[in-house]
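Sequence design from tokenized structure. All designs in this work follow the same two-part layout: the structure record, then the generated sequence. An example of the structure record is given first.
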């Protein structure tokens, strides 16, 4: 888990939440990250919020851009 999180600390992409610092003790991992307003996409989906085709297209493009960035920065 820490390895995956540390990758985020080095990811520099507008569609990836910035992680500034990771700390851990014997039972907990602490993540200091940028504040993202507007809520969580998963919450909005599970609450049944409807999205227009244009909104879905924009979300998918952002997700694919972030995934592509992470894949290419191994």
């Amino acid at each position: 888990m820490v390895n995956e999180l540390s990758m985020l600390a080095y990811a520099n992409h507008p569609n990836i939440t910035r992680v500034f610092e990771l700390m851990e003790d014997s039972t907990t991992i602490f993540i200091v990250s940028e504040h993202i307003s507007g809520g969580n996409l998963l919450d909005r989906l599970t609450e049944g919020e409807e999205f227009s085709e244009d909104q879905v297209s924009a979300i998918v493009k952002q997700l694919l851009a972030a995934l592509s960035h992470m894949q290419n920065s191994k």
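Residues 2-72 form a domain with the Phosphorylase Kinase; domain 1 fold (CATH 3.30.200). We note this feature because it recurs in several other targets discussed in the main text.
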